[in-house]
Protein backbone atom coordinates (compact mmCIF):
# COMPACT_ATOMS: atom_id res chain seq x y z
CA UNK A 1 0.00 0.00 0.00
CA UNK A 2 1.38 3.46 -0.89
CA UNK A 3 2.40 5.85 1.86
CA UNK A 4 -0.33 8.34 0.88
CA UNK A 5 -3.02 5.66 1.24
CA UNK A 6 -1.69 4.76 4.66
CA UNK A 7 -1.89 8.39 5.69
CA UNK A 8 -5.46 8.60 4.41
CA UNK A 9 -6.54 5.55 6.43
CA UNK A 10 -4.78 6.63 9.61
CA UNK A 11 -6.60 9.98 9.41
CA UNK A 12 -9.82 9.23 11.28
CA UNK A 13 -11.87 12.17 10.08
CA UNK A 14 -10.69 13.81 6.89
CA UNK A 15 -11.76 17.40 6.34
CA UNK A 16 -14.85 17.57 4.08
CA UNK A 17 -14.13 19.25 0.76
CA UNK A 18 -16.28 22.16 -0.39
CA UNK A 19 -17.77 21.76 -3.83
CA UNK A 20 -19.89 24.12 -5.82
CA UNK A 21 -23.04 22.79 -7.46
CA UNK A 22 -23.71 23.01 -11.16
CA UNK A 23 -27.43 23.61 -10.72
CA UNK A 24 -30.41 23.27 -8.31
CA UNK A 25 -30.41 19.98 -6.37
CA UNK A 26 -33.18 20.56 -3.86
CA UNK A 27 -31.74 20.03 -0.39
CA UNK A 28 -32.43 23.66 0.39
CA UNK A 29 -35.94 22.41 1.13
CA UNK A 30 -34.68 20.50 4.21
CA UNK A 31 -35.90 23.18 6.65
CA UNK A 32 -39.32 23.08 4.98
CA UNK A 33 -39.34 19.30 5.30
CA UNK A 34 -38.57 19.66 8.99
CA UNK A 35 -41.35 22.21 9.43
CA UNK A 36 -43.82 20.06 7.60
CA UNK A 37 -42.83 16.98 9.63
CA UNK A 38 -43.10 18.88 12.90
CA UNK A 39 -46.48 20.31 11.94
CA UNK A 40 -47.81 16.87 11.12
CA UNK A 41 -46.37 15.43 14.28
CA UNK A 42 -47.67 18.22 16.49
CA UNK A 43 -46.01 19.60 19.58
CA UNK A 44 -46.29 19.10 23.23
CA UNK A 45 -45.75 21.76 25.83
CA UNK A 46 -46.04 21.30 29.54
CA UNK A 47 -46.46 24.09 32.04
CA UNK A 48 -46.17 23.67 35.78
CA UNK A 49 -47.95 26.30 37.88
CA UNK A 50 -46.62 26.70 41.39
CA UNK A 51 -48.19 29.23 43.67
CA UNK A 52 -50.36 29.39 46.72
CA UNK A 53 -54.05 28.56 46.54
CA UNK A 54 -56.15 31.28 44.96
CA UNK A 55 -53.18 33.28 43.65
CA UNK A 56 -54.67 33.34 40.14
CA UNK A 57 -53.04 30.34 38.41
CA UNK A 58 -56.10 29.09 36.57
CA UNK A 59 -57.19 32.58 35.57
CA UNK A 60 -53.77 33.28 34.10
CA UNK A 61 -53.76 30.02 32.12
CA UNK A 62 -57.21 30.82 30.75
CA UNK A 63 -56.03 34.31 29.85
CA UNK A 64 -52.80 33.08 28.25
CA UNK A 65 -54.48 30.56 25.96
CA UNK A 66 -57.63 32.61 25.54
CA UNK A 67 -59.86 29.74 26.47
CA UNK A 68 -61.52 28.25 29.52
CA UNK A 69 -59.82 25.21 30.98
CA UNK A 70 -62.15 23.42 33.31
CA UNK A 71 -60.49 23.65 36.67
CA UNK A 72 -61.83 23.38 40.15
CA UNK A 73 -61.07 25.68 43.02
CA UNK A 74 -58.61 24.04 45.38
CA UNK A 75 -59.41 23.69 49.05
CA UNK A 76 -57.17 25.17 51.70
CA UNK A 77 -57.24 21.92 53.66
CA UNK A 78 -55.05 19.64 51.56
CA UNK A 79 -52.81 17.50 53.77
CA UNK A 80 -49.89 17.90 51.39
CA UNK A 81 -49.10 19.36 48.00
CA UNK A 82 -50.67 17.35 45.18
CA UNK A 83 -49.67 17.60 41.53
CA UNK A 84 -52.63 17.63 39.17
CA UNK A 85 -51.87 17.39 35.43
CA UNK A 86 -54.52 18.11 32.81
CA UNK A 87 -53.84 17.64 29.12
CA UNK A 88 -55.63 19.54 26.37
CA UNK A 89 -55.43 19.36 22.58
CA UNK A 90 -55.24 22.84 21.13
CA UNK A 91 -55.10 23.91 17.52
CA UNK A 92 -54.06 27.22 16.04
CA UNK A 93 -54.03 27.46 12.23
CA UNK A 94 -52.79 23.99 11.29
CA UNK A 95 -50.53 23.52 14.29
CA UNK A 96 -51.57 21.05 16.97
CA UNK A 97 -50.39 21.56 20.49
CA UNK A 98 -50.77 19.01 23.23
CA UNK A 99 -50.75 21.27 26.25
CA UNK A 100 -50.41 19.90 29.75
CA UNK A 101 -51.03 22.23 32.66
CA UNK A 102 -49.84 20.85 35.97
CA UNK A 103 -51.26 22.48 39.06
CA UNK A 104 -49.47 22.22 42.40
CA UNK A 105 -52.68 21.94 44.41
CA UNK A 106 -52.49 22.95 48.07
CA UNK A 107 -49.09 24.59 47.79
CA UNK A 108 -48.38 26.78 50.82
CA UNK A 109 -51.46 25.64 52.74
CA UNK A 110 -49.82 23.28 55.23
CA UNK A 111 -48.70 24.44 58.66
CA UNK A 112 -45.43 22.61 58.23
CA UNK A 113 -44.10 23.62 54.82
CA UNK A 114 -40.71 21.91 55.11
CA UNK A 115 -41.52 19.26 52.54
CA UNK A 116 -43.79 21.33 50.26
CA UNK A 117 -41.28 21.25 47.42
CA UNK A 118 -40.87 17.45 47.50
CA UNK A 119 -44.01 16.37 45.59
CA UNK A 120 -43.12 18.91 42.88
CA UNK A 121 -39.53 17.64 42.57
CA UNK A 122 -40.81 14.05 42.57
CA UNK A 123 -43.32 14.82 39.82
CA UNK A 124 -40.65 16.43 37.61
CA UNK A 125 -38.27 13.50 38.20
CA UNK A 126 -41.02 10.99 37.47
CA UNK A 127 -41.57 12.56 34.04
CA UNK A 128 -37.84 12.43 33.32
CA UNK A 129 -37.78 8.81 34.47
CA UNK A 130 -40.66 7.90 32.14
CA UNK A 131 -38.81 9.43 29.22
CA UNK A 132 -35.56 7.68 30.19
CA UNK A 133 -37.35 4.33 30.45
CA UNK A 134 -38.80 4.86 26.99
CA UNK A 135 -35.35 5.72 25.67
CA UNK A 136 -33.82 2.60 27.20
CA UNK A 137 -36.44 0.29 25.71
CA UNK A 138 -35.34 -1.96 22.87
CA UNK A 139 -38.49 -1.14 20.98
CA UNK A 140 -38.85 2.52 21.72
CA UNK A 141 -41.35 4.83 20.15
CA UNK A 142 -40.08 8.29 20.93
CA UNK A 143 -41.64 9.56 17.73
CA UNK A 144 -45.21 9.33 19.05
CA UNK A 145 -44.29 9.31 22.72
CA UNK A 146 -46.33 11.76 24.75
CA UNK A 147 -43.57 13.78 26.34
CA UNK A 148 -44.74 14.90 29.76
CA UNK A 149 -41.48 16.46 30.90
CA UNK A 150 -42.13 19.87 32.40
CA UNK A 151 -40.89 22.56 30.02
CA UNK A 152 -41.52 25.56 32.20
CA UNK A 153 -42.47 26.31 35.76
CA UNK A 154 -44.40 29.52 36.28
CA UNK A 155 -43.69 30.43 39.86
CA UNK A 156 -46.43 32.73 41.18
CA UNK A 157 -45.09 35.22 43.72
CA UNK A 158 -47.58 36.78 46.14
CA UNK A 159 -47.73 40.55 45.59
CA UNK A 160 -46.70 41.52 49.11
CA UNK A 161 -44.35 44.31 48.03
CA UNK A 162 -41.92 43.18 50.71
CA UNK A 163 -39.68 40.26 49.91
CA UNK A 164 -39.83 36.64 48.89
CA UNK A 165 -40.98 34.13 51.46
CA UNK A 166 -38.57 31.40 52.58
CA UNK A 167 -40.94 28.89 51.01
CA UNK A 168 -40.50 30.62 47.62
CA UNK A 169 -36.73 30.63 47.89
CA UNK A 170 -36.46 27.05 49.08
CA UNK A 171 -38.85 25.75 46.43
CA UNK A 172 -37.22 27.65 43.57
CA UNK A 173 -33.77 26.53 44.74
CA UNK A 174 -34.87 22.90 44.75
CA UNK A 175 -36.39 23.22 41.28
CA UNK A 176 -33.85 25.32 39.44
CA UNK A 177 -31.69 22.41 38.28
CA UNK A 178 -34.72 20.47 37.11
CA UNK A 179 -36.91 22.91 35.26
CA UNK A 180 -36.92 26.33 33.58
CA UNK A 181 -38.33 28.69 36.18
CA UNK A 182 -40.05 31.90 35.17
CA UNK A 183 -41.01 33.87 38.26
CA UNK A 184 -44.10 36.04 37.95
CA UNK A 185 -45.70 38.47 40.34
CA UNK A 186 -49.35 37.47 40.48
CA UNK A 187 -52.30 39.84 40.89
CA UNK A 188 -50.03 42.73 40.03
CA UNK A 189 -53.03 45.08 40.01
CA UNK A 190 -52.91 45.02 43.81
CA UNK A 191 -49.51 46.71 43.97
CA UNK A 192 -48.68 50.31 43.05
CA UNK A 193 -46.31 51.23 40.22
CA UNK A 194 -43.46 52.52 42.42
CA UNK A 195 -43.81 49.63 44.87
CA UNK A 196 -43.80 47.18 41.98
CA UNK A 197 -40.52 48.56 40.66
CA UNK A 198 -38.86 48.20 44.07
CA UNK A 199 -40.43 44.78 44.58
CA UNK A 200 -39.01 43.50 41.29
CA UNK A 201 -35.51 44.73 42.19
CA UNK A 202 -35.79 43.16 45.63
CA UNK A 203 -36.94 39.81 44.25
CA UNK A 204 -34.14 39.65 41.71
CA UNK A 205 -31.61 40.60 44.39
CA UNK A 206 -32.86 37.88 46.70
CA UNK A 207 -32.80 35.28 43.93
CA UNK A 208 -29.22 36.17 43.06
CA UNK A 209 -28.03 36.25 46.68
CA UNK A 210 -29.61 32.86 47.32
CA UNK A 211 -28.12 31.37 44.17
CA UNK A 212 -31.48 30.61 42.54
CA UNK A 213 -31.05 30.16 38.78
CA UNK A 214 -34.12 31.31 36.94
CA UNK A 215 -34.65 30.84 33.21
CA UNK A 216 -32.99 33.52 31.09
CA UNK A 217 -34.45 34.19 27.67
CA UNK A 218 -31.65 33.19 25.23
CA UNK A 219 -29.63 35.92 23.62
CA UNK A 220 -27.50 33.74 21.34
CA UNK A 221 -29.98 33.73 18.46
CA UNK A 222 -29.59 37.02 16.59
CA UNK A 223 -33.23 37.13 15.56
CA UNK A 224 -34.47 37.30 19.13
CA UNK A 225 -31.37 38.40 21.05
CA UNK A 226 -32.43 42.00 21.37
CA UNK A 227 -35.98 41.43 22.51
CA UNK A 228 -34.91 38.65 24.86
CA UNK A 229 -32.23 40.83 26.46
CA UNK A 230 -34.81 43.57 27.05
CA UNK A 231 -37.27 41.07 28.49
CA UNK A 232 -34.68 39.54 30.81
CA UNK A 233 -34.43 42.97 32.41
CA UNK A 234 -38.18 42.97 33.04
CA UNK A 235 -38.17 39.77 35.08
CA UNK A 236 -40.11 38.88 37.16
CA UNK A 237 -43.14 39.73 35.05
CA UNK A 238 -45.95 41.38 36.94
CA UNK A 239 -49.14 39.89 35.54
CA UNK A 240 -52.87 40.36 35.81
CA UNK A 241 -55.26 37.67 34.70
CA UNK A 242 -58.87 37.98 33.68
CA UNK A 243 -61.29 36.28 31.38
CA UNK A 244 -63.83 39.04 31.78
CA UNK A 245 -64.32 41.30 28.75
CA UNK A 246 -64.84 45.00 29.31
CA UNK A 247 -65.69 47.64 26.71
CA UNK A 248 -62.89 50.21 26.47
CA UNK A 249 -63.63 52.86 23.81
CA UNK A 250 -65.39 50.79 21.22
CA UNK A 251 -63.34 47.68 21.73
CA UNK A 252 -63.97 44.70 23.97
CA UNK A 253 -60.82 43.93 25.92
CA UNK A 254 -59.94 41.49 28.67
CA UNK A 255 -59.72 43.46 31.84
CA UNK A 256 -60.53 43.65 35.52
CA UNK A 257 -63.02 46.30 36.32
CA UNK A 258 -62.88 48.16 39.61
CA UNK A 259 -64.99 51.00 41.03
CA UNK A 260 -62.12 53.39 40.32
CA UNK A 261 -61.15 52.12 36.86
CA UNK A 262 -60.25 49.28 34.57
CA UNK A 263 -57.05 47.20 34.54
CA UNK A 264 -56.48 46.00 31.03
CA UNK A 265 -54.71 42.69 30.86
CA UNK A 266 -53.17 43.31 27.46
CA UNK A 267 -52.15 46.89 28.10
CA UNK A 268 -48.40 47.02 28.63
CA UNK A 269 -48.77 50.14 30.76
CA UNK A 270 -50.98 48.18 33.16
CA UNK A 271 -49.05 44.93 33.48
CA UNK A 272 -46.52 42.57 31.88
CA UNK A 273 -49.06 40.01 30.68
CA UNK A 274 -48.28 40.58 27.00
CA UNK A 275 -44.54 40.31 27.68
CA UNK A 276 -45.08 36.98 29.40
CA UNK A 277 -47.27 35.65 26.60
CA UNK A 278 -44.82 36.77 23.92
CA UNK A 279 -41.82 35.31 25.69
CA UNK A 280 -43.44 32.10 26.80
CA UNK A 281 -45.45 31.18 23.75
CA UNK A 282 -44.42 33.14 20.71
CA UNK A 283 -40.68 33.62 21.03
CA UNK A 284 -39.18 31.07 23.38
CA UNK A 285 -41.44 28.02 23.49
CA UNK A 286 -39.00 25.97 21.43
CA UNK A 287 -36.05 27.13 23.52
CA UNK A 288 -37.87 26.07 26.67
CA UNK A 289 -38.46 22.64 25.17
CA UNK A 290 -34.88 22.46 23.98
CA UNK A 291 -33.45 23.53 27.35
CA UNK A 292 -35.59 20.97 29.10
CA UNK A 293 -34.18 18.23 26.89
CA UNK A 294 -30.57 19.30 26.59
CA UNK A 295 -29.99 20.70 30.06
CA UNK A 296 -32.40 19.45 32.67
CA UNK A 297 -33.19 16.02 31.25
CA UNK A 298 -29.54 15.48 30.31
CA UNK A 299 -28.51 16.18 33.90
CA UNK A 300 -31.15 13.79 35.24
CA UNK A 301 -30.15 11.12 32.71
CA UNK A 302 -26.45 11.47 33.47
CA UNK A 303 -26.94 11.24 37.23
CA UNK A 304 -29.32 8.32 36.85
CA UNK A 305 -27.08 6.34 34.52
CA UNK A 306 -24.04 7.02 36.71
CA UNK A 307 -26.05 5.90 39.70
CA UNK A 308 -26.82 2.70 37.78
CA UNK A 309 -23.09 2.24 37.21
CA UNK A 310 -22.80 3.29 33.58
CA UNK A 311 -19.87 5.41 32.51
CA UNK A 312 -18.43 6.63 29.23
CA UNK A 313 -14.81 5.78 30.01
CA UNK A 314 -12.91 3.61 32.44
CA UNK A 315 -10.25 4.81 34.94
CA UNK A 316 -7.67 5.24 32.14
CA UNK A 317 -10.05 7.41 30.09
CA UNK A 318 -10.60 4.53 27.66
CA UNK A 319 -14.06 4.52 26.13
CA UNK A 320 -16.37 1.99 27.66
CA UNK A 321 -18.91 0.16 25.54
CA UNK A 322 -22.39 -0.62 26.84
CA UNK A 323 -21.56 -4.33 26.67
CA UNK A 324 -18.43 -3.82 28.81
CA UNK A 325 -20.35 -1.70 31.25
CA UNK A 326 -23.02 -4.37 31.45
CA UNK A 327 -20.42 -7.10 32.01
CA UNK A 328 -18.58 -5.01 34.63
CA UNK A 329 -21.84 -4.20 36.34
CA UNK A 330 -22.89 -7.86 36.25
CA UNK A 331 -19.60 -8.98 37.78
CA UNK A 332 -19.84 -6.26 40.39
CA UNK A 333 -23.38 -7.30 41.14
CA UNK A 334 -22.48 -10.97 41.43
CA UNK A 335 -19.50 -10.33 43.70
CA UNK A 336 -21.66 -8.00 45.78
CA UNK A 337 -24.27 -10.75 45.97
CA UNK A 338 -21.64 -13.26 47.01
CA UNK A 339 -20.25 -10.87 49.60
CA UNK A 340 -23.73 -10.29 50.98
CA UNK A 341 -24.41 -14.03 51.02
CA UNK A 342 -21.13 -14.68 52.88
CA UNK A 343 -21.92 -11.82 55.24
CA UNK A 344 -25.35 -13.25 55.94
CA UNK A 345 -23.96 -16.74 56.45
CA UNK A 346 -21.35 -15.40 58.85
CA UNK A 347 -24.04 -13.40 60.60
CA UNK A 348 -26.15 -16.54 60.92
CA UNK A 349 -23.25 -18.57 62.33
CA UNK A 350 -22.42 -15.80 64.79
CA UNK A 351 -26.04 -15.59 65.80
CA UNK A 352 -26.21 -19.35 66.37
CA UNK A 353 -23.00 -19.21 68.40
CA UNK A 354 -24.31 -16.32 70.42
CA UNK A 355 -27.59 -18.13 71.09
CA UNK A 356 -25.71 -21.28 72.01
CA UNK A 357 -23.56 -19.35 74.46
CA UNK A 358 -26.62 -17.64 75.89
CA UNK A 359 -28.34 -21.01 76.30
CA UNK A 360 -25.29 -22.51 77.99
CA UNK A 361 -25.07 -19.55 80.33
CA UNK A 362 -28.76 -19.94 81.12
CA UNK A 363 -28.31 -23.65 81.74
CA UNK A 364 -25.38 -22.95 84.07
CA UNK A 365 -27.43 -20.35 85.93
CA UNK A 366 -30.33 -22.77 86.22
CA UNK A 367 -28.04 -25.50 87.46
CA UNK A 368 -26.57 -23.18 90.07
CA UNK A 369 -30.03 -22.15 91.11
CA UNK A 370 -31.06 -25.78 91.38
CA UNK A 371 -27.98 -26.64 93.48
CA UNK A 372 -28.64 -23.69 95.72
CA UNK A 373 -32.26 -24.65 96.15
CA UNK A 374 -31.23 -28.21 96.85
CA UNK A 375 -28.84 -27.03 99.57
CA UNK A 376 -31.51 -24.79 101.05
CA UNK A 377 -33.96 -27.67 100.94
CA UNK A 378 -31.55 -30.04 102.68
CA UNK A 379 -30.79 -27.44 105.34
CA UNK A 380 -34.51 -26.91 105.89
CA UNK A 381 -35.05 -30.65 106.05
CA UNK A 382 -32.26 -31.01 108.58
CA UNK A 383 -33.74 -28.24 110.70
CA UNK A 384 -37.21 -29.76 110.51
CA UNK A 385 -35.74 -33.13 111.47
CA UNK A 386 -34.01 -31.55 114.46
CA UNK A 387 -37.18 -29.75 115.46
CA UNK A 388 -39.11 -33.01 115.19
CA UNK A 389 -36.59 -34.79 117.31
CA UNK A 390 -36.70 -32.02 119.91
CA UNK A 391 -40.47 -32.11 119.81
CA UNK A 392 -40.46 -35.89 120.31
CA UNK A 393 -38.07 -35.56 123.21
CA UNK A 394 -40.23 -32.81 124.68
CA UNK A 395 -43.33 -34.96 124.14
CA UNK A 396 -41.80 -37.99 125.84
CA UNK A 397 -40.51 -35.78 128.70
CA UNK A 398 -43.94 -34.31 128.98
CA UNK A 399 -45.52 -37.73 128.96
CA UNK A 400 -43.11 -38.87 131.66
CA UNK A 401 -43.92 -35.81 133.73
CA UNK A 402 -47.58 -36.36 133.13
CA UNK A 403 -47.36 -40.01 134.29
CA UNK A 404 -45.46 -38.95 137.41
CA UNK A 405 -47.99 -36.23 138.13
CA UNK A 406 -50.83 -38.69 137.66
CA UNK A 407 -49.15 -41.17 139.96
CA UNK A 408 -48.65 -38.48 142.54
CA UNK A 409 -52.22 -37.35 142.18
CA UNK A 410 -53.57 -40.87 142.65
CA UNK A 411 -51.35 -41.31 145.70
CA UNK A 412 -52.55 -38.00 147.07
CA UNK A 413 -56.15 -38.99 146.43
CA UNK A 414 -55.65 -42.25 148.12
CA UNK A 415 -54.08 -40.56 151.11
CA UNK A 416 -56.91 -38.04 151.50
CA UNK A 417 -59.55 -40.78 151.34
CA UNK A 418 -57.83 -42.64 154.33
CA UNK A 419 -57.47 -39.62 156.60
CA UNK A 420 -61.22 -38.91 157.62
CA UNK A 421 -61.75 -42.58 158.51
CA UNK A 422 -58.90 -42.38 161.02
CA UNK A 423 -60.22 -39.12 162.43
CA UNK A 424 -63.75 -40.59 162.79
CA UNK A 425 -62.36 -43.60 164.60
CA UNK A 426 -60.55 -41.27 166.95
CA UNK A 427 -63.76 -39.21 167.47
CA UNK A 428 -65.88 -42.37 168.08
CA UNK A 429 -63.36 -43.53 170.55
CA UNK A 430 -63.64 -40.21 172.25
CA UNK A 431 -67.45 -39.83 172.24
CA UNK A 432 -68.51 -43.44 172.59
CA UNK A 433 -70.44 -43.43 169.40
CA UNK A 434 -68.55 -46.45 168.03
CA UNK A 435 -71.44 -47.85 165.94
CA UNK A 436 -72.49 -44.63 164.30
CA UNK A 437 -70.10 -43.04 161.67
CA UNK A 438 -70.28 -41.39 158.28
CA UNK A 439 -67.82 -40.92 155.33
CA UNK A 440 -67.81 -37.62 153.34
CA UNK A 441 -66.17 -37.57 149.99
CA UNK A 442 -65.69 -34.03 148.68
P1 LIG B 1 -56.67 27.45 43.07
O1 LIG B 1 -56.65 26.64 41.82
O2 LIG B 1 -57.91 27.28 43.88
O3 LIG B 1 -55.42 27.31 43.87
O4 LIG B 1 -56.72 29.00 42.68
P2 LIG B 1 -55.98 29.68 41.47
O5 LIG B 1 -54.58 29.97 41.84
O6 LIG B 1 -56.20 28.90 40.24
O7 LIG B 1 -56.72 31.08 41.40
P3 LIG B 1 -57.93 31.45 40.48
O8 LIG B 1 -57.47 31.66 39.08
O9 LIG B 1 -59.04 30.50 40.68
O10 LIG B 1 -58.28 32.88 41.08
C1 LIG B 1 -58.65 33.07 42.39
C2 LIG B 1 -59.29 34.42 42.55
O11 LIG B 1 -58.35 35.43 42.23
C3 LIG B 1 -60.47 34.62 41.62
O12 LIG B 1 -61.45 35.34 42.28
C4 LIG B 1 -59.87 35.46 40.49
O13 LIG B 1 -60.85 36.31 39.89
C5 LIG B 1 -58.87 36.29 41.23
N1 LIG B 1 -57.79 36.71 40.36
C6 LIG B 1 -57.21 35.98 39.41
N2 LIG B 1 -56.25 36.70 38.81
C7 LIG B 1 -56.25 37.91 39.40
C8 LIG B 1 -55.50 39.09 39.21
O14 LIG B 1 -54.63 39.16 38.38
N3 LIG B 1 -55.78 40.15 40.02
C9 LIG B 1 -56.73 40.09 40.97
N4 LIG B 1 -56.93 41.17 41.70
N5 LIG B 1 -57.45 39.00 41.16
C10 LIG B 1 -57.22 37.92 40.40
MG1 LIG C 1 -56.88 26.90 39.98
UniProtKB/TrEMBL annotation:
Keyword annotations from UniProtKB, A to Z: Cell projection, Cytoplasm, Cytoskeleton, GTP-binding, Nucleotide-binding
CDD domains attached here?
A: CDC_Septin (cd01850)
- Name of this chain's protein: Septin
Family per record: Belongs to the TRAFAC class TrmE-Era-EngA-EngB-Septin-like GTPase superfamily. Septin GTPase family.
This chain is encoded by the gene named SEPTIN8
In what ranges is there compositional bias, type Basic and acidic residues? 1-16, 379-391
Q: What is the lineage of its organism?
A: Eukaryota, Metazoa, Chordata, Craniata, Vertebrata
Annotated localization: Cell projection; Cytoplasm, Cytoskeleton
Bias class Polar residues marks the residues at: 409-420, 432-442
Q: What does this protein do?
A: Filament-forming cytoskeletal GTPase.
Listed under GO cellular component are: cell projection; cytoskeleton
- Keyword flag rRNA-binding: no
Q: Which GO terms describe its molecular function?
A: GTP binding
Q: Which organism is it from?
A: Panthera leo (Lion)
In terms of one coarse class, where is the protein primarily found?
other
Amino acid sequence: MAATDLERFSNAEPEPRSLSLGGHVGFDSLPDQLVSKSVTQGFSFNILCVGETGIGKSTLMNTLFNTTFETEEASHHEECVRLQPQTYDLQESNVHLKLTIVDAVGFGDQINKDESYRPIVDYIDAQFENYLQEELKIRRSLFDYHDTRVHVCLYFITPTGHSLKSLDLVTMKKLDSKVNIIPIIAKADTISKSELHKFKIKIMGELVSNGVQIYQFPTDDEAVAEINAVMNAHLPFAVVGSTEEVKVGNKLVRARQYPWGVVQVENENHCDFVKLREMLIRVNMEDLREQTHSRHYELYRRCKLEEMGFQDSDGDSQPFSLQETYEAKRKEFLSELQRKEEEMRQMFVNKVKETELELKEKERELHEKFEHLKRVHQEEKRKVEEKRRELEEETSAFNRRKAAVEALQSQALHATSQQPLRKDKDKKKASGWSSIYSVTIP
